[in-house]
TrEMBL record:
Family to which the UniProt record says this protein belongs: Belongs to the adrenodoxin/putidaredoxin family.
SUPFAM superfamilies: 2Fe-2S ferredoxin-like
Keywords: 2Fe-2S, Iron, Iron-sulfur, Metal-binding
This protein's record includes keyword Cell inner membrane: no
PROSITE patterns, alphabetized: 2FE2S_FER_2
Family annotation (InterPro entries): 2Fe-2S_ferredoxin-like_sf, 2Fe-2S_ferredoxin-type, Adrenodoxin-like, Beta-grasp_dom_sf
Entry's Gene Ontology BP terms: P450-containing electron transport chain
Protein's organism: Rothia santali
Identification of the protein by name: 2Fe-2S iron-sulfur cluster-binding protein
One of the Pfam families matching this protein, by short name: Fer2
Start and end residues of each 2Fe-2S ferredoxin-type domain: 3-106
Gene Ontology molecular function: any one: 2 iron, 2 sulfur cluster binding
Length: 106
C-alpha cells in the first residue's frame, strides 16, 4: 500500500511523492531524492531529519517517543508543535494528502 504526500523542500518547491507502507518518512524522503542529512542514521539521536507536518495531519503521525521529545526540545528555536523527526515517523494511511515541509538548509 502507499499514500501520496506533498513535500515542500528547503527552497520552497513542492512536489507530490509516494510514501510506501514499509518506509519511515525519512526513508520515503530519501527514496524521492531529498537530501535529508540524517546524521545518526535514523536512531533518534541527531535531529538532522527534522521535518514539519501540516497541523491537520499531524495527529495521524502518532505519538512522539521520549527520545524524540528530548531532541525536539534541544532545537526548540526551530521546532514547532507539528515538528517530527522523520526517522521516527511511521507510515499511516491517514497521512494521505499530508504536507511535509523540510527545514531550510537541511
Ligand atoms: S536521523 Fe538522526 S534523529 Fe532522525
Amino acid at each position: 500500500m502507499s499514500i501520496n504526500i506533498t513535500v515542500v523542500d528547503e527552497d520552497g518547491e513542492s512536489r507530490e511523492v509516494e510514501w510506501r507502507d514499509n518506509q519511515t518518512l525519512l526513508e520515503c524522503l530519501h527514496k524521492n531524492q531529498y537530501p535529508v542529512l540524517a546524521t545518526c542514521g535514523g536512531n533518534a539521536s541527531c535531529a538532522t531529519c527534522h521535518a514539519f507536518l501540516d497541523p491537520e495531519h499531524f495527529p495521524a503521525s502518532g505519538e512522539r517517543t521520549e527520545e524524540e521529545e528530548d531532541l525536539l526540545e534541544m532545537i526548540d528555536d526551530v521546532a514547532t508543535e507539528t515538528s517530527r523527526l522523520s526517522c521516527q515517523t511511521e507510515y499511516h494511511d491517514e497521512l494521505d494528502g499530508a504536507t511535509v515541509t523540510l527545514k531550510p538548509g537541511m
